[in-house]
C-alpha cells in the first residue's frame, strides 16, 4: 500500500491542530480524535483494498526485432464492482526499453480492456518479459494499491526480421519499394522472365508491342538477374564493431543488412552464407539456396556478439580459401582505423580477387563526420577528425585502385545502399 495524495492532505489536519496546541491546550483532545479517526478510516480502507481486483494476461510475439518497436498487448480484467483507474508496468529484460510504460486506462466494473505498449530491444538473444505491476486506488481513495501479478513471457530477439516481413509483403502485393527493388530489378535482356502490365518507371524499350496490341493495354517484358550465384557475408566481430550508433552496435547494423540482403538474394535464386570472425572464427554457415536460406543466415548470427579483441582478418580469408570453392561475392563488413589493419586488408583483398569478387563495406563514424563538417568544436578536435577522415578516404581509394569494390556508408543507410550495390553487381555481370 502506498499513501495517496488524499491521505497526505488529511494528515495535515491533525498536524495543524498539533501546532495549535502550543497556543491552546484545549485543542489536544480534538487533535487526538482527528488522529484516531483518520487512522481508523485509513485502516478500514486498507482492509477493503486487500483483495486484488485485477487480472492481467500478456500477448507478445515469440520473436522480437532488435532496434524496432515491437507491440506487446495486455488483456486486463476487472473483478471490482466499481470503476478503476489503472496503471500497469511490466518488468522488461536488460537491454530493452519502452516509452509507453506505465500504460494508463479506465476500467469499467467487471469489464475487460486491452492495453498496448511497444518494447525496443537493443541486444539479441533469449530473454523474458517479467511480472506485471498494477496500481489503482482503494475504495475510499486513501491508498494506492500496488499488485504484482507474476508472469514470465520468454522472447527471442532476432536481427531486424520486421524489415524482411515488410519486404515480403510488398513482394506478394507486387509492389516495388525504391530501396528494395530486388525481386523486380532485372538484368540482361537475354534472360526473359515474364510479361506484365507496364508500370511507371519501366524503360520504353522493354515494351512488347505485339502483346500490347493483343491486350489493348501497354505490356512490358520483364527480365531476371542471373541466379544460382554465391553470396557470402564476412562479419567482423572485433572490438571496433562494438561501437554504438542509433542505439545499435555496428555489428548489429551489419547483421541486419546481411539478413535483408540474404532474403533478397535467396528470393532471386542465389545461394547465401555467413562467416563471423573476431580473433578467430566464431560461426560459419556455408552458402545455401531456397526459401530457408535467410533463416540459415539468421540462425548462424542470432546469438553472436562483438568482442573486445583484435580482428584476425587472415583467419577469415584463410577459412574462405579452404571452404569456398565456387566463385562468390564476398561482402566484408568491418571498421578500419590504423595503417597496419589497412595494409593487411589490401594484401588479403589482392589475394582473394582472382577466385572471388570482394565487396568491402566500411561503416562510417557519423560523429567524426559531424566534427569534420563543423560545429562548436575546438580546432584540435576538428583537425584530429579530419586526419581520420583523410585516412579513410585514402584507404577507400587504395582498395579501389587494386580492383576491390568498396561501399563507404553510414550505418543508418547501410541496408538500402548495400542492396542497390548488389543489384548493380548482378546487372553488370561482375560476378
TrEMBL record:
Q: Which InterPro entries match?
A: DUF58, vWFA_dom_sf
Q: Which residues form a coiled coil?
A: none
Highest taxon of the lineage: Bacteria
DUF58 domain spans which residues? 195-377
Q: Which Pfam families match?
A: DUF58 (PF01882)
PANTHER family per record: BLL2464 PROTEIN, SLR2013 PROTEIN
Protein name from the UniProt record: DUF58 domain-containing protein
Origin organism is Sorangium atrum
